Amino acid sequence: MEKKYLKWYNKIGYGSGDIAGSGVYNFLAAFVMLYLTTTIGLNAGVIGTLMMLSKLCDGVSDIFFGAMIDKTRSKLGRARPWMLYGFIGCAITLSLIFAIPTSWGKTAQYAYFFITYTLLNAVFYTANNVAYGTLTALITKNGHERVQMGSIRFMFSYGTGMVVQAVTVGAVTFFGGGAAGWRTVAIIYSIIGLISNTISCFSVKELPDEELDDEDTMMTENGKVKYSLIDAAKMLLKNKYYIMICSIYIFQQVYGAMINVGVFFMTYVLGDEKLLGTFAVAINVPMIIGLLVTPFLVQKLHGMYKLNLVGYILGTICRGLVIVGAMIGSIPMMLVCSALASFATSPLQGDLTALIAASSEYTYLTQNKRIDGTMFSCSSFGTKLGGGIGTALSGWLLAASGFINDAAVQSAGCVRMISIMYLVIPTVINLVIALVLSRLKVEQANAKLVSEKE
């Protein structure tokens, strides 16, 4: 029987940290394009291009911060200092992004957005998010506890996302609307994030180096980690499961960006922007319920592989039925099938951090190097790159379709494009993820390696 490391309040405290990260990500992903186009008056295509360029600028920062976490030794541990101080920068830059001076010229506004958006993603969000994910491997060695932590974390994440999507538009209006309304809401989300991130950081304690099994070939006599950034990148590229998990994160974020086109889909296709909150509930509540039962299902099925694969196959079928519901004009069918798809794909969200920890163990078993922080960079790297690609793609497609800011009615071509983005592309992405999951057999690989060594 595996040793238990955490109490129930440690798990909940840790999970509450995703109120901060999810608040930042969902607020940006769902509303930054709306804010920039309809309030500031910037071009969606240009914004999409700037977001993509920003992602290219911070492509290496994830591995850099992962390696820095592995090298860090402090009273707070390895990851917690980066998690704690990183979010202070997140809060400041998030507020700045939604405070673009309306009196400036367009060129200055584009430059302002690019700088603040890049600082948020490349520096502060990366440091915070990689550290937060790495804690999964640093505060417990119990596989079941890691699955539980992942499930609790993403329950907070999806719950936060649901609230952000449901209340943001109304909150902006409540605080006066326009640029001032967006700025006030961004500051409120930043303060809430600072509080939850701090609570999360101090609700857990990292295990000592001796218990984490760090006495291996990557340590020097003075206790310093002795591999370079290039060495870290080589170790990651040698781990095929890291590549698979990275690709899953990327596809998931592109999926999320397409689902976030829902604000346009509800307004211009279904004709009622208030339905956004209804669909947010239909998607997020089943996801949270699914996350609640994921640890039990993983234990019952003796692993994550079959559960994740079957879930995504069913999720793909249900997303296909959402398309059918839209074609026949049945909003209830769309809601039910969206809910079923969300529930079916929820186990992967709950055990993804445990899969990363297993992937890190694979590197240790094959290369005798423990690089937990570097390995968990895939979560931040995949999230940012996928989110950047998805948001940029949504901007490019909207611009190409002839989307007009503040228009009461869009052209037939634009409406058709919005429908493809919200309905068709997510279904295709789910199918691709299912194909990747069919090859993600890291648990079996680790078991075989351990058996061979014994």
Low-confidence parts lasting 5 or more residues at pLDDT below 50? 214-223
Q: Do you know the CATH architecture? A: Up-down Bundle
Percent in helix: over 70%
- CATH structural class: Mainly Alpha
Element string (H = helix, E = strand): HHHHHHHHHHHHHHHHHH
Percentage beta strand: under 5%
Overall mean pLDDT: 87
Major beta-sheet overview: none
| Number of domains as seen in the coordinates | 1
The CATH topology: Growth Hormone, Chain: A
Q: Can you count the beta strands?
A: 0
Question: Going by CATH, what is the homologous superfamily?
Answer: MFS general substrate transporter like domains
Radius of gyration: 22 Å
Class of secondary structure makeup? mainly alpha
Shape category = globular
| Distance N to C terminus | 18 Å
Question: How many helical elements?
Answer: 18
Give an overview in words.
This protein has 454 residues and is an all-alpha fold. It has one domain: MFS general substrate transporter like domains (Growth Hormone, Chain: A, Up-down Bundle), CATH 1.20.1250. Helix content is 77%, strand content 0%. The longest helix is centred in the C-terminal third of the chain and has 37 residues, at 331-367. It is globular, with a radius of gyration of 22 Å. Residues 214-223 have low confidence and may be disordered.
Features:
454 residues, mainly alpha, Growth Hormone, Chain: A, 18 helices
